[in-house]
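Predict the 3D structure for this chain.
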Amino acid sequence: MAKNFYGGIPVFRGFASLMEPKLYSPLPDDWTIGVADIVESTKAIAAQRYKAVNMAGAAVIAAVTNALEGREFPFVFGGDGASFAVARDDLGAARKALAATAAWVRDDLDLVMRVALVPVSAIRAEGLDVRVARYGPSANLSYAMFSGGGLGWADAAMKRGEFAIEAAPPGTQPDLSGLSCRFEEIPSARGLILSILVVPARGADPKLFRQEIEEIIGLVERSPDGGRPVPSGGPPLRWPPQGVEYEARATRGGPLFRRRVYVLGRTLFAYLVMRFGIKVGGFVPELYIRQVVENSDFRKYDDSLRMILDCTEELARALTDRLAAAAEKGILRYGLHRQDAAMMTCFTPSVMRADHVHFIDGARGGYASAATALKATLA
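Done. Predicted structure below.
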């Protein structure tokens, strides 16, 4: 059945093979692409509201997941937004979740989120496609990868005001259960956190673009000077967490003051359990932290290569030189952003399951600032 299409796609493990066409399966014609992003995210980042921007992007995925009652669907976190695909039977639930999330972002985060639902058939009518693969960074879970140019077209259509979904009325609260940001910023261990965004140049030869992406990934994977920004011992954890206000606002029910008190109590208990390695029922803190590290979503492909790397200045220069040379040849366009730390936003529907997801972005602008740098190359 088309509804179970995504769950039937085999999982691939080696990230370096992500450009292999046979890993990708075309979405069924009756599916729909959802896209969301923060309007004027650059201004929000300039005001140092990085965490709010990331929380908004992750909220889209949490709300749709909860609306679909945990059914698997492909999604990708983009820093200041998110993209996903849903089957026809799930479209109504996804629409309500998107509208409610846009309302929550407006009311509780004081940001403007635009959202759209784009039929796959409309994308194919433009001569593009949406193909999806499943990459497993660990044995615990998989993340979706998208190719075919359709996701990029859907995002551009949303920004033109097409296929728009109106935000729900004020006070509408999506189900954001499991969305949290309890870990602190993760300082670079190698020198800097580099946000990388790479897209094909207009009219570029797909074979040359694939070759460049594979070379870039190979350069990173062969080097001892760069890699996952999450240390093996997990991200720093303190109490009260920096993100306590956002988690309180994401919690349903009752006045905000009561939700703050509830979240403070809940996070204090969690902090003590994690800090002292206390086993609670079947929950083992050491195992959970290992899964957090393994499950961290720090690199992906959604018609563009996105990576958040902890790397040395030398590796950053080598990557910049490689990208600049390929851009000069008309193969690709790119944006980079340097910062001193990364940050993590978590979606953990159940701590007793191994498939909790942890979205990584740069802590001083990340993907959104890399996208701004990319746009500047077109000016």
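The radius of gyration is 20 Å.
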